[in-house]
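This part of the workshop introduces the protein records we will be handling. A learned vocabulary of local backbone shapes supplies the integers on the structure line. Getting from the letters to the tokens is the skill we practise here. As an example, a complete record with its sequence and its structure tokens follows.
=====
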Amino acid sequence: MSTCVTGPFCQGTSSESEKGASVKELFLAILILFVPGNVAPVFSAPPVEKTIVYIECTTSDKTVLHGSGVVVSPQGHVLTALHIAPDNAVCRGSIGVADPQSLRNMVRQPISTGVDATLLRFSLPGAYDYAQFCPLEDWMVRKDIFVSGFPDNTGTGTPSFRRGVLATVLPDSSGFLESDAQTIRGMSGGPVFSKNFAGIIGIVAGARFDGSGAVSSYEILSAEFFAKLLGLTKSEIPCFHETREVTLPAEMQHWKAGDPPLNLGVRVDEGMCFLASIWGQFTNTSDTVVVSAREDGFYYLDGTSNASGLRGGAARCFWYD
């Protein structure tokens, strides 16, 4: 007399040998679903170099100022430091390269920020790649950032990136944040990115010196300080993560047969998601619960829905940094 194995692999009246083979086959199939490999290709935003601008401004007394900026709208608006592009200056810029032969005319926008920031716009219409901005919270202090721009007399003509940390997240009365990310002449006005390049913290402002003349900190002009005034776009994805493990909302923690695919809200270039648990009836090899990456770049929790039984599962996700 045959008996049925209790639990989710119960298959009725099959023989013990058949049952053992079937259980082993199903168990192997489910184990494969736990392995977080073989996902879709990484989906990434356009290179940030396409948003970094080399700027030359000529003042009314023919003084030529060199600096950097960042494209902040699809219409070609460029955020930069006011001391690089003063009100009496005519400015030109090139995207992604410090090349005097590639400079294009820029028009000053009639907006006063009240701080060391101004808004220019490329005269040539087009659809521009642009950077979004990162809202800041208290827990983001000491998070990694990258300052960028075009140092004077650069030998390559390409943007330079310097790594540092956010020393403060609350701007002072002039809109400045502090960092240890070293900047040099020519990088003023350049973008300061979050470590994952999801958005800008602000722009390079300069350095603060102590009584002996040594640098005490490097200053960043907070983008959030004037984001509303300039119509900057908030980053669509998190710039920083408070914890390594993703806190999934209650409605995203479990999937069961019959439910639509569950978007876990994590992109494959941001983190990794995998099956944490499964439950229910798996009576043949086509019964699945799986975490997979789809063409939109997000991880999904999903599975098969058929008449062979009820089943489900839960996922866990972790940010890369």
Remarks:
- Residues 43-240 form a domain with the Thrombin, subunit H fold (CATH 2.40.10.120).
- The CA atoms of residues 174 and 290 lie 51 Å apart.
